[in-house]
Amino acid sequence: MNDFFMLIGFSEILLVIFMQWEVYVAKIIKTFSISSYAVSVFLLYLSFVQHSYLVLILAILTAVIRGFFIPNFILKRLARDPWRERESKPIMGTASSIIISLVIAIFAYVLYEATMLNFIGVLSGAIPIALVFQGAFLVISRRNAFIQLVGYMVMENAAFLFTGYLFPDLPFSVEAGTVLDLIGVVMISGIIMRMRENSPKKSDDIDELRG
Amino acid sequence: MLALSVIQLVYVLALAPLIAGIISTIEERIESKRGPSIFQPYYDLLKLFRKENVIPAKSSPIFRIGPYVTFSLYMLLTLVLPIITAFPLQFGPVVDFIGGGLTFGAAATFKKLMALDSRSNYAHLGTSRSASIGALSEPITVLIFIMLGVISKTNNPYIINNVLQTSMTWYLSLVHWFVAAAFFMVLLVETGKLPIESHSTAELGAIDQSMEIEYSGSDLAFFKWGGYAKQFLLMSVFLNVYTVPFWVPMKMNFDSVFIYMGIQLLKLVGLAIVFAFFEESVSKFRLLKNFDYIAVAFSMAFLSFLVFSISG
């Protein structure tokens, strides 16, 4: 069980590092979709281990809403052709943001070991904590609102992973509520972002020529 | 043992150009072209051996002896790395993984000296690029070696192979696969596949081609042959130590070693296909984007530490 959790958890960390590497918005959204499917696979496995149909429902909800619906909804909100949408001027260099994201993961591990490990008792609980921090870093290291939204959803995925593995007794209504809340957040954000995209702005044609 | 060492040496030197030829041919086929024969590198080497050497007037003896020194260093590496056996051959105990890395580093440094000594601006351009990429990829290699040391409690590549062959726990562990992924990324850099188009002669991406630009005749042949051998060795290490350590004979037996030589060739062809697909399907980065690629490779290597620490 712990091995599977670690496999999924570290895949998630790698996917966040890939998001830091990527500049194309559509690819980042698709990566988030893969990361959500990975969380749902973990929940599916958990449902078999715990013989819980509620966790099974949660796994299906995660796959449908986080893996399929939300990424597709965001892709449709992209103002131009989705494959062209990219962030040409991130707040910091890509290489530095990858390394900082890595350092954050290590910092989260040290922090978790020093504070929460005593009462949780599972060392791998550091993985979702690292993901929360990495998601937050994705939000602050990018200018593009869609990528910032993905960063926020990465934090939510981490919270899901954390509660799913370490607090399996959390009421189903709370966890399912979190999944459904996200739809509202994404829809409202989509509308706001569409308004932002449509507002007049200075030309950035030259930026398009950058690598 | 000595006989097997000689067989291994001949095996590497004879087949190294073939692997390079296979990669080129598959790449051309992917591009729907007919492409050269898989034996083209042999024809190139033969042609170069027949041509005369031209030496820049202002170069020092380093330029002249360079290709032979680097070729000799790759030959030395051939004698000490696990290519066709998982038990140390005659010269196996001479170096460990760190020593092997240093020998690769020595060859790379000598190549840079040779290129600088050619007094050509293009060679200097390639040297500068090679040095900046090497400076970033070397720490990753060191991290990888340290992690392999953690897995096997040694720095000996033969023992690492034995541990991974016999312990499924280690073989399937995330630590091992993170290390393997990091090494794969470094391997692509070291063999000039990614992140930039280094096997092109175009000024914008050329690295090795710039460094050898002033060479001709047998000097160039040895330069190229050394390059093929380096690629062959690194691919073999990746297969035998990192990803597919199975079937490599762990005990002295001529029959099994000879059978394995065929298997090793098949493994290499499989990796050559993977290489070709990578080269054809992943777009090349610009030089300034190198750091991003290297940063991801570094992350992979470093995450293996985190996995090890968390999994206890």
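Residues 2-83+91-199 of chain A form one domain.
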